Amino acid sequence: MKYRIITIDGPAGAGKTTIANLLARQLGCVYVDTGALYRGVAYEIKHRAIDWENDECLEAFLADLDLNFLMEEGNLVLISSGKDITSCIRTPEITMQASAASARPQVRLALLDIQRNIAQKQEAVFEGRDMGTVVFPEAAFKFFLFADLSVRAKRRYEEMSEEQKDMQRVKQEMEKRDADDSQRKEAPLMAASDAIKIDSSSLTIQEVVDKILKNIQKA
Question: What's the average model confidence in pLDDT over 32-60?
Fold first, then answer.
């Protein structure tokens, strides 16, 4: 790549989003939440009642899809066909739909160009599940965050609104998503062979960021 690209992969609840955002701010570069793109696809599938398991329907839907990111007052905003859908994509239902839809090769191919176009224009921190293995295998710096399931479930539980809180359900859904993401045929969740692995189970957000910065600065 012409510009510096940093990838952060890992399972749900490992802290990727918060850490990637903070890291980008400290480095003065762009943060790209690739998971939000898949959630955006999932939201539009639900909103438009798309039969996403039908190849023809899915391909027609993806051809008409218009997703983009904007920065507003330092925050990343997801825009779909001119509409801000950022507040609509963090529900448990959309999360599970995003995981299922991301296994479809048509979906991954449609979003690949969006991600790579961003990388061609500027330095950026990309976080997701296959950033270092599939999307940017040549990235200058690759990291893989992980944490114990119980720790990750607790983190996700604490982020939820009161009416959504159900620890048993959160843990079960996260465990299922781990299995789905790791076992899918298309771009399964795994650490790149040259990625630096960081266990965030007992680390603070800043401690993880400091570890990443230390590895970048010594390169």
Answer: 93
Number of structural domains the chain divides into: 1
**Residue 213 lies inside a defined structural domain of this protein:** no
Give the CATH number of the domain where residue 151 resides. Answer: 3.40.50.300
* Cα 116 to Cα 118: distance, rounded to the nearest angstrom: 5
CA distance 113 to 64: 15
Phi (first) and psi of residue 31, to 5 degrees:
-105, 130
Asked, for residue 204, whether it belongs to a domain, the answer is: yes
Which residue segment(s) compose the domain that 11 sits in? Answer: 5-208
Cβ atoms of 125 and 18 within 8 Å: the answer is: no
In this structure, what token pair is assigned to residue 106?
A: 């048509």
For the four alpha carbons of 145, 149, 155 and 156, in that order, the dihedral sign comes to: positive
Q: At what angle do helices 149-159 and 167-183 cross, to 10 degrees?
A: 120
Q: What is the pTM of this model?
A: 0.77
